[in-house]
């Protein structure tokens, strides 16, 4: 089978491409399939060339996802699996409405239309976010809670979910939209996500740098590790369409952790000197976005489908510490998610 990964130069995108390139087969819609080629698409050409140079089955597709040349190439390639990760992050989408609409919404519309032109509907994994939800006081909600986003990013992702649902109903794709938790701890350079501090307050102190904390210690976050995010994508690809029962949206499990617990964990694992590198720097704009997100989400349906969360925040920090190494800064626009 052939696989398309959009946003392939982003952090999660690179992980997905590397993981797929290391495998011979993948479970797709309930059937084990041999991987013949991986088409890595992104506007950042350099990282794509690097991946294609390392992995013989990876082919680079540089350029804007909505460009006619890119869409023609995708239609001609006719992938069996589309993993749509390309996105502008939450803070960037809030600051630049047109950019968010172009990348987070229009590219999804164009990609679904490209799938319509294919002889067979591909499995279509759409990367959404818990930012589609809103609540008062950072409350606990369930996966059945009706979405009501309070950010441009969350709104764009919700529209994408509805499009994937309808395109699946029409038989254009075999869709599954994944509402990702906030990913922590991300390596590399900071991005413009409103939740970027969830990685920064761990990553930067461990690297000997000061980190600014824009929110209070009581704020809770629904978190998953980078490794877990990768596993979620692979599990979603393998699900039989019938197992979704007509509902293509999956709110993914995470661990509920307060910022205070995150800082206490850092202090316990790395010591006082490292923990003291986190400096309070209240930011009203950031707080307005992230405090509208749920602090905890119960996800019995997702768990029944085979999605398993991380053990605890200690495991997330230890994972980052074990994998930490100097990395080339990433394009901020390509470091996806909430």
The tally of structural domains comes to 2
Q: Rg to the nearest angstrom?
A: 19 Å
Helix content: 40-55%
CATH class of the largest domain: Alpha Beta
CATH architecture field of the largest domain: 3-Layer(aba) Sandwich
Low-pLDDT runs: 326-338
Q: What's the count of strands?
A: 16
Mean pLDDT: 93
InterPro entries: DenD, Epimerase_deHydtase, NAD(P)-bd_dom_sf
Keywords: Carbohydrate metabolism, NADP
Pfam families: Epimerase
Domain NAD-dependent epimerase/dehydratase: 3-211
Quick recap:
The protein is α/β, with parallel strands linked by helices. 41% of the residues lie in helices and 20% in strands. The protein folds into two domains: 2-183 and 224-251, Rossmann fold, CATH 3.40.50; 197-222 and 255-296 and 310-327, Alpha-Beta Complex (UDP-galactose 4-epimerase, domain 1), CATH 3.90.25.10.
Protein traits:
three-stranded mixed β-sheet; 2 domains; 20% strand; 16 strands; alpha/beta; Rossmann fold; globular; 338 residues; UDP-galactose 4-epimerase, domain 1; disordered C terminus
């Amino acid at each position: 089978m052939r696989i398309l990964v959009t946003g392939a130069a982003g952090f999660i995108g690179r992980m997905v491409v590397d993981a797929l390139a290391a495998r011979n087969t993948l479970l797709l819609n309930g059937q084990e399939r041999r991987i013949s080629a991986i088409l890595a698409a992104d506007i950042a050409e350099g990282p794509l060339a690097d991946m294609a140079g390392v992995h013989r089955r990876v082919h680079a597709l540089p350029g804007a996802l909505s460009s006619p040349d890119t869409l023609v190439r995708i239609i001609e390639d006719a992938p069996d699996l589309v993993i749509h990760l390309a996105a502008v992050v939450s803070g960037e989408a809030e600051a630049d409405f047109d950019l968010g609409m172009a990348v987070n919404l229009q590219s999804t519309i164009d990609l679904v239309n490209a799938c319509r032109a294919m002889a067979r509907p591909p499995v279509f994994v759409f990367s959404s976010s818990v930012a589609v939800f809103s609540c008062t006081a950072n409350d606990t909600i369930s996966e059945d809670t009706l979405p009501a986003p309070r950010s441009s990013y969350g709104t764009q992702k919700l529209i994408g979910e509805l499009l994937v649902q309808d395109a699946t109903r029409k038989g254009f794709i075999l869709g599954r939209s994944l509402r990702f938790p906030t990913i922590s701890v991300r390596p590399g350079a900071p991005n413009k996500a409103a939740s970027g501090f969830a990685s920064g307050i761990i990553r930067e102190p461990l690297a000997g740098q000061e980190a600014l904390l824009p929110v209070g210690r009581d704020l809770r976050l629904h978190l998953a590790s980078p490794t877990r995010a990768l596993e979620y994508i692979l599990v979603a690809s393998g699900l039989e369409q019938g197992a979704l029962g007509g509902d293509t949206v999956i709110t993914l499990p995470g661990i509920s952790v307060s910022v205070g617990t995150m800082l206490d964990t850092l202090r316990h694992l790395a010591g006082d000197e490292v923990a003291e590198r986190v400096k309070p720097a209240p930011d009203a704009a950031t707080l307005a976005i992230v405090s509208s997100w749920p602090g905890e989400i119960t996800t019995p349906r997702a768990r029944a489908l085979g999605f398993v969360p991380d053990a605890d925040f200690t495991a997330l920090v230890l994972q980052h510490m074990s994998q930490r190494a100097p990395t080339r800064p990433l394009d901020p626009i390509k470091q996806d998610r909430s």
